[in-house]
């Protein structure tokens, strides 16, 4: 704990100067591009280091590497372009026009919150690591970053930090006058090889830390949120925590889709469950089947066969391996759920190593018939509602979309449906009578998920403006935001408004001559993100 | 407590149907306009009721009434226009173009969170009351509203609710098929005449409540936030609380401005302190003077004279009256601070009534010289850092803008400066050497405030797009948002993303033919709030 405090004191020294160094958005963009370029130069070394440390395959890490550098460059472009600040200008209303309140000149924009502490993920050592999306978005916003080491991959973390820190130092020394590479670089790294809870707590309590990005377990995210709010009890300022906390992602296969292409969907889902050996927050966890019992049985048999055909693999860490075994045991104990894959044990020992065996559990008992989510919930809610991290999934019957609402909210919900399924009209007699079952189901599902996928697997994240990697609790604690895509930058910002401020003293984003071209005024009317209101 | 629970059960019955009734944005707009029209028809009765109950003057309530109805109509326009949902469309990248991750069609927008509980303010019974900004923005977002009665003005609250509820019921019955006026109206009112803590807690803990808007004390806001997060300990879902918690607003008068127009500024600030008898969250609380001691003394004498010339007035409630007396006593006890107004007591008794006397305290001791904020803070931090609600203010010397940073963050900071003040160049020798003192000061002030006013009083809120009524803790608990202006609607929303969704199943905001005209795609590139990125 004392060591942690010492490290932390070093990690936060000179951060104010680091903030100033990031004040210029062109500099921020240059820094992000420089980090991406430096990582590219060390691509082979990084991937080899990470593969050795995490047991993830180079073939899995290659696209993740591209996502990491692609995200850094995307945020460089976002910072350079400038419209992310949500600039708005309200000039005084012209004579005769109405203004509510005093008719003053008002201009607002987003400004950075201050240093951001990043607690990266175990499962994406690159895309959610030292140079991952939280770091990239925070730097793009103008916030220094302090990364806490992830004990599952310290070698990867230190290598990434070394490369990124060096690239950043060179870039800032070249572009910021008076910049001191010894103490001003706004990217810090706090070691935590022993997974010492004190390190994370000290970081979350640190006076200079203004926000936290976390990717990990629900318990971890909630604990960090408590620490961050508890700062107020010690006379401090509470800070926001953006926690992505895992998810039991639902997949619904509608009657028609199950009948016409059940095998193909089973193959899709097998690939999705097996990718990175199930260690993805977007892994399909709960697969609900509509339609006939025969179709459902064929689907379960095919999915089981495909999972049985996959090799057992080492998971990311011993801790995660132990949790996988316990998770599978919990599912096995649920009344009404049977193991439909053929290997009996969740772990096998190969050499000195424990490897995880893919497993499928299904409520497909031929005697008792299928059980839907509500029935299953009554029999073992805790187990089927909890994420099992690793290559395991559960299949249920899905008679009635509304049952989905009884499951915890998720990051992603996938729906497989055919043209025929689109025509199934609801006969509930209620206010929605006459809508199609699918439309009803989609609107119900959208209420409890961050991303709704149509005819596709939940895994696989496109990094683009519209991406929402988030969702209602317990998937995250902040459903108003996303951890992926340009919008993620707003997590590290707050709003500020300038009233009657002389043009020369305004930030350039808000000046009359609109040097960034990021807003429009039409006939003196209010603007909002470039679009005039009340038009 | 049992009564409270019964009331609450009644208040939340049928709310799901209420949510559905608000699903159509045109209906939401019609409802908001109908409420505004109904309030207009009862204007005289409302203002008379409120004036009698709160001791606010009709002349003070008239503009507040206009702000209430203006805000309702503004949010009607926001809902009708539709671009507030932040729609974004990413069509698949064309062949040859790069996509990070799977090249799928992605579309995102904001969707309503669900029922919002509104805890209104004591001091703005109309603009922050039953039909105030929180209610208007939540209804515009599509969220039903449950208002907790404010014990300081139950008659006003019940009257507003009666009028708004009736208007809403009539409007929805006319436009929504199957709407039941007896149980579906999505505006509820929970009585709390005795200020029973249990009522608020039960509401914040209620399963159906999805978010909370609060305007009031810091203790109240923090307590509510604790309850809302504590839901998770009882197996529930934590919900966001948007708390605006009062503020000691800073005013800085620069050397040149003090010299050339000190009297005029003193008159401005006297009016600002005295408006609504100091019962405004934007009241100037801490006035810092730059420049010469003689100018400062003249300013304090003039401001004291103007406050002395004002009549004592009744405050909003007995509770607030007692707190005003205690707050003034705390300031009086601060070493180095003297009372510069002539009336010795904070309260006077007139008839059976206790009335508040305007008071000014200043660190202008002719023997010891002026003291700046840091020096004063060392002598009585708790007192000068705490809001005194009512017609009292403190004057300090402001040598060095950076001292402002030692004060708690505020909703508003005002700066009075002349042309001459713009030229004062910093000679700190540091990284910012050579910038003007004023630019430095503004950037420092912006770091600790939500709205920065130039040459104007902090009171007076223009309701427009750029408005930020918010700020860092302790002014609010959510500096990323604003309680006033169109952006306030986003507090009641979360993000959802549709991936590869058939056009017919998409919300109309996201359909290919862009029926609302709220987004643009340029050459298939990502859009963001209508502006293509990476352009």
Describe the structure.
The structure is a homodimer of 535-residue chains. In chain A, the strands form 5 sheets. Chain A has a 7-stranded mixed beta sheet, with helices on both faces. In chain A, strands 5-4-3-6-7 form a 5-stranded parallel beta sheet, with helices on both faces. Chain A has a 3-stranded antiparallel beta sheet with strand order 1-2-17, with no helix packed on it. Chain A has helices at 2-12, 15-21, 25-41, 43-54, 58-81, 133-141, 154-175, 197-205, 218-230, 255-274, 293-308, 318-332, 373-384, 419-422, 437-446, and strands spanning 88-90, 106-112, 116-119, 145-148, 187-190, 211-215, 241-244, 249-253, 284-289, 338-339, 347-350, 353-356, 359-362, 392-397, 410-416, 449-454, 493-499, 527-528, 531-532. Chain A is 38% helix and 16% strand. Chain A starts with a helix and ends with a strand. The first copy, chain A, is globular and about 75 Å long. Chain A has 535 residues and is an alpha/beta fold. In chain A, strand 6, helix 9 (218-230) and strand 7 form a beta-alpha-beta unit. In chain A, helix 4 packs antiparallel against helix 7 (154-175) and helix 5 (58-81) packs parallel to helix 6. At the A-B interface, helix 5, strand 1, strand 2, helix 9 and helix 15 of A face helix 5, strand 1, strand 2, helix 9 and helix 14 of B. Strand 17 (493-499) of chain A pairs parallel with strand 16 (449-454) of chain B, so a sheet runs across the interface.
